[in-house]
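User: Can you predict the 3D structure for this chain?
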Amino acid sequence: MGGYDENVCMCVLNRIFGNKPKVARGLVESLGSAGELFKAGRERLQEVFPYCTEIQRINDREYERSEAELKSLAASGTRFINCRSPLFPALLKECPDCPSGLYVRGDWPSSAEDGAKEGVAVVGTRDLSDYGKEWCRRIILRLSETEEKPMIVSGLAFGTDITAHRAALKFGLPTVAVLPTGPDRIYPASHARDAEILSERKGCALVTDFPPGTPAMKYNFLRRNRIIAGMCPSVILTESKIRGGGMTTARAAFSYDRNVFVLPGRADDIRSQGCNYLIREKIAEPIISGDTVASVLGLTPMAPGDVFNSGEEGKAGLTRKYDKALSPGDIDLMAEIILAVKDNKGIAMDALSDMLGTGTAKTASLARLLECDGFIEIDLMNRCSIKIDKITREY
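Assistant: Here is the predicted structure, written as structure tokens:
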């Protein structure tokens, strides 16, 4: 056979040594490239690697099989990115058990110049409580309010995973789902619509290192989890029992020297046992506010003044910031709150609610959000005042 395409060769190695990625890496490094393995021939390979029984599968027949496979996948929008490509996740490439490559369906990454953007992994139990769901969304909302817009990585499973993906899409963040199956299958099948939406969104994708035709099997989830942990500088565990997939992902992340964050919970809540244990063992840092992760990662929060001084004035600035999280009616009420507080410094919450003709609970909820984002201040007596230095003339 003539010349060998390196990407196709790496695809062959990924299929042969998917469960032994260290062996594949050793073989490639010993001869300099995957193509050299195919050029060497069976006899030469047996001389150099006498104890590697799988080398007999490094042949032209397997090469042609992968070549045809990649052509077929390309027709359906899926490509294979080998671990030597500049598009491959840089952090994952550093892991000792890095896969030979990833099948990718979607817009991530869009070009060699972009590279594979690193992000924040969000994992946890499938039996997610309302508390866990609220905090999962709250954390991702805060991450969406940074200038860098990190990518959210998870596994498309029930509970934490799908909550994280949907929140990322809602709040305008790129998100990547790492599958426990081949690229031609979706697990769970009930999330097929979410997978379709995700794969069509800019900066988002479905990825896996399992070859086409691979079904969801128990072992696959452990293999999948190390990719989630490896490709991100930080991992967030929302809720987890003492044993579970989220715990294995968190431990893998710790072994890769990544930042590990957990959401603390009640001592008697079985869904928080894993998180509390990781805090006790000093493996993870507790999340005590929505800004914890962004702060540790060095992500720059959007300044409140930027919302008002970016060329969009008044309510338009609020819409740009909150349109993914709030209804138009809530944004209108926020604008009224800012105007009322500006003109009535020190106004009490009850008086503010009466002035606007809205319920106290609703007014207080939106006012607290404005306080969290630096627009207003609320003292211990529930008196409100403007916090930011510059507000457009409309206010």
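The domain at 119-297 is CATH 3.40.50.450 (Rossmann fold). The longest strand covers residues 101-106.
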